[in-house]
Amino acid sequence: MQTDTQLSTLKSCYQSLQALLHSFNFFSSINTLSPPVLLGTAQNGWNRFLSQNHSQSRVDMLAHDFLLLVNEHFKEKQSIGFYALQLLISQPYLREICCAKLLQPPIRWIQFRLVLKGMSLLEKDFRSINEIAWDIGFEDLSYFIRLFRNFTGWTPARFRLEL
After folding, report:
1. Taking the model in full, what pTM does it have?
2. CB atoms < 10 A from the CB of 119, how many?
3. How far apart are CA 68 and CA 63, in angstroms?
4. What's the pLDDT tens digit per position in 46-58?
5. Packing angle between helix 106-124 and helix 80-87, nearest 10 degrees?
6. 141-152 and 106-124 helices cross at what angle (nearest 10)?
7. Which region, left, alpha or beta, applies to residue 154 given φ > 0 means left and ψ of -120 to 50 means alpha?
8. Which residues lie closer than 8 Å to 68 by C-beta, 6 or more apart?
9. Would 54 disulfide with which of 59, 64, 66, 147, CB 3.0-4.6 Å?
10. What fold does the segment set 2-156 form as a domain?
């Protein structure tokens, strides 16, 4: 059945993402990956997941649409309410969908996308970590550092040094 195949592909893609980060049981083998490998694998997994055709149930489509919205608005909008409103569903229902289909609450996906952007900028941009944090929407540098370390196991400074 085609929907079973698509669902298994979706799960397989998520499992490859899950193998990268460890915080909140999000990605488990991060400490064994070097920053360039981590960045490349995380970006490839995210892009592959978003590019797949997810034409299954309404819940599957909402989960995929949520991630597309996160990919588009993560810098400006970190509120779960914004994404629920865009999808025309309630915040508790969005949380239920994300936990059931994406195995993490919506805030973790938004935070992951912010950290992924931070990793990319740390690799390509020579601005200070404070400027990069500000650019991706963090007014508090210490919060960006804590979140970055929570997802990657590295501080932003150490991550940049290891590149």
Report:
1. 0.72
2. 26
3. 9
4. 676 666 655 578 8
5. 110
6. 100
7. beta
8. 50
9. 64
10. Arc Repressor Mutant, subunit A (1.10.10)
